[in-house]
Input
Amino acid sequence: MNFRSLIVTLLNWLVWSEQVQLLNGIGIKNLDRTWDSFKAVQIPKQFYDAIEKSDFSKQSLQNKLEHFLEKLQKNLTLSAVLSNSEDIVTNERNYLYRMQELSTFFYEASSSFEHFSSDIKIFYETSKNASYALLFKLRQVPTGQPSIVKVLLTNYFAEMEFFHVLFSEIIDEAMEYSTESLRSIQKLFVYYADTQNIILENWKLKTNPQCCKLYINFLQHQSSQIFKCAALDNLNIVYDVYSVTKLNIKYIMRQLEFRIQRLFNCLLYKSLTLQCKLLKSAEQDLRILFSNLAELDMFLDIKTKKGRALALRYRREKTWINNQINFEPKPDDCLPIGFPNTQMSTDLKECFYFLDNVVQQ
Output
């Protein structure tokens, strides 16, 4: 440190010491009678309730999707779909039950995606509101304070307000990516379940062993491909974004709670020398929190860009015309154009009474 820097540092220390003595001599006005409103700076209960609800939705979704591929291979087989009975009616009932069981899974899973998306959004919005609620506490310092206190508090409040703006923007980024990704998966699952039901109800598969085997193989392959594409890589990114963002938000909220309570304590106990050094440099006091935000922003940028490259781009508008599935041919990573017609073999198409009639006409 050169001589000039030493002089500047010494002068700053003398000015601060003089301010502290002045403040300790003047006192902080009107604080004694407002102690009850300051003594418990707390994160709103709604914040913790929102975390609990979104965690529960995430766990429910994971439970729903767990071991789906193994169950698909086990339950959707020729022996499982067609019983050993010679009774055609019994065989057909068992076939219908197994087919409906598969579409029901995709409907229920889509509902779980929707609930998780909704609860994530509530959690992120609640986090922003909780941050603002803590920030609003700073506005409750009684007016009529000495000018030195006013200046220091104004500077600290401005820095906190700037932090809240950045905090909200980063939360919005995580929320937008997560909800859009989950909504895309949810729409895809509903579409796939609808497609299965249309085929089951209107196309009328011939329930002989050969046709059943062809259709079962088709469903096994398509269901596993759609599930892997939609609910593995992309969903794992959503899980990572949620978990890391939640962890950082909880840390930040507790730090904000601690800092605001510490600020009130220093004013209430008039101990500027020991506890109110934070007012001297608001930027320095919040440096760790700004650094934490920067790291979270970098994490989200890396994760969501990768996620967008893998993300579902479900944009099809489907209509039903003469029991056929039609939609605008737009590219999709998980559902090929012309599905399911373009994915069916000629032999499989001949197994449906409806398609057979269309060909004959």
